[in-house]
Write a structure and sequence with these properties.
- By secondary structure, the protein is mostly helical.
- The two termini are 31 Å apart.
- The relative contact order is 0.28.
- The protein contains two helices and two strands, in the order αβαβ.
- β1, α2 and β2 form a beta-alpha-beta unit.
- The longest helix has 29 residues.
- A two-stranded parallel ribbon has the order 1-2.
- 42% of the residues lie in helices and 9% in strands.
- The protein has a domain of 30 residues.
Length: 89
């Protein structure tokens, strides 16, 4: 994706990451897969785009990356862990 975007529009100077969606689940009902899903949605999606870009930005000596987190990262809630969208049953 990064290669295609830069081929079409030139070097990427700014990346804004904003991914994931809250799934409120009481902690007693959580399963390990929910934690994996949350990391995939909110962490690894960022990493997979940032990794090639931060290297290219570093080589150019310019660029900015902004990571946006939801309110779940700022305001604690007993039903906000993990905060990832899951397919409805």
């Amino acid at each position: 994706m990064v290669n295609e975007a830069e081929a079409a529009g030139g070097p990427i100077d700014i990346l804004v990451n904003s991914a994931g969606a809250a799934r409120r689940t009481p902690f007693a009902e959580l399963q390990p897969q929910a934690w994996h899903d949350a990391m995939q949605a909110k962490f690894f999606t960022y990493v997979h785009v940032m990794d090639p870009l931060v290297k290219r930005m570093g080589a150019r000596g310019a660029g900015s990356i902004v990571n946006v987190v939801g309110m779940g990262g700022k305001v604690a809630s007993p039903t906000h862990w993990p905060a990832a969208r899951r397919t409805p049953r």
